[in-house]
Structures are given as structure tokens and as C-alpha cells.
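Work through this protein:
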Amino acid sequence: MNWMREHISKPEIIASVFWIIIKIVLIYIIARIIIKIADKTITHMMVAREKSPIKIDRRRSNTISILIHNLISYTVNLVAIMLILGQVGFNLGPLLAGAGVLGLAIGFGAQSLVKDVITGFFIIFEDQFGVGDVIQIDQFKGTVEEIGIRVTRIKSWTGEVHIIPNGNIKQVTNFSTYNSIAVVDVSVAYDADIDRAMELLREIVTHVHERTENIVKTPEVLGVQMIGNSELKIRVIAECKPNTQGEVGRILNAEIKKHLDAHGIEIPYPKVVTYLKQEKVEGN
């Protein structure tokens, strides 16, 4: 007992223990600082996401932020514990080797799953699309019903639900981020008064704009777009809310047809003219 007391009381032993304690405290403080910085970074990302034009369900974003916080916290704490164990004399070589072999085996067995999860995180953080958006992934187009960490679900307008692994998403077209353009080509007969027809179109599109909330500004009558075999085509465009161009186009078509009919502007239809050749009678 006296030998142990004398051994512990040696200055070099006391200095060694003191520095070990200092290192352990520093490791702990640095780990806490790293976690605090990570938390602030996550909070900043969430605030920036809230200001994005694409809105994601708050509950989902909170869940993702908690998952990231836990992932960073567990990783930093694990590294800190291993460093502390190394300071107190534990041999970490066999432990690290075993963890490396286990991680390699899991990585080979779950490559597809890891790829799906990582891609899912990037989809959410980069605000590529949100729930309720109309998007197209490869040949699949529809409304996003769910953005999961591993898969994305979209529902087509005919009712089919497509479940797409996030790792398979290479290119996305989002139809719901910005305003869309409805394009309407109006055919009029050659013998119609073009100036009069364009004036009537301006009148009716202004009236439709006042009654239709999906149109964000007065539609434009661009002019004669094409000269066809039996008609002239006048192009009308209307800027409308995202993904409403189909509905707005149908409204414009119906109202334009009624307005032109009421003012005697004919919308052409195919006509066939037949010429009969009269044969010359012999002897006349």
C-alpha cells in the first residue's frame, strides 16, 4: 500500500495524469463545440428552406433536422469516446479493425439503400420539389404525394401511384415552382378582317383575366403565328399560376369561340371544291 502511495506521488506520474485529464477535458469541450456548430448550421438551413418557393411539410423538415442532429451527435460522441479511451490506455487497434470490417460488410450489402437515403436527404435540402408539386421523373409525371428518405411517391392524373427509389432519380422537371404559360392558337378564315379579329381577341382575353383568378396578368395577343392552307392562326398567351395552363387554355378557347361567333368572325373548317371536266362531244 505504501509502495502504491509512493508510486502515485511521483512527480512524473502526477504530471502524466494531469495532462491526460487536460486532454480528456479538451476532447470533451471540442466535441461539444462541434455539435453546437452543427446545430446552428442545421437551424440556418431550415430557416433558408422556409424562405424557398417550394414549401415542405414542417413536420417532415423537423424530423429530418432531428435525424441529422442525432447522426452528427452520435458520430462526434463516438469519436470523442474512442479518443478518451485512447488517452487512458485502451488499445483501439483491434476495435477499429473490427468496426472497419463490419462497416465494409454493411456497405457492400446495403449499397442501394445507402444511395437512396443520401439522395433523399439531398432532395429535401436542395428543395428540388415538395409535396403537392407536379413533377416529371423520367417517363412518370404526376403530383408528389410523399417524399420519403428512401422513396418518393407520385400520383398521375389518371390515378396510378408510382413509387420511385430516390437513388434512381437522375433528372426532375418541376412544373409547380414558377408561373406557367398557356398558349392558345386561334384559327380564322382568310377572308376575315384580321385587325378586327385581333381587337376582339384583346377584348375577350381582358374580360377572361378579370374573371379568372388563375391568370396573373392580362393575356397578350401576339399576332399571326402561322399561315395555313385554309386559315390564319393568331397566337394568344397568358401567364398563369403554376400548373394551371391546361385549365386556363380551356377557358380561353371556350370564351374566344363564343366571342368570335357573336361578332361574325368565322373559324374555318375544311372545305372541298370539286371541278367537273366537261368532255367534248364528237361531231359538234
Observations:
- The mean pLDDT is 78.
- The chain has three domains: 2-109, 128-174, 180-262.
- The two ends are 151 Å apart (CA to CA).
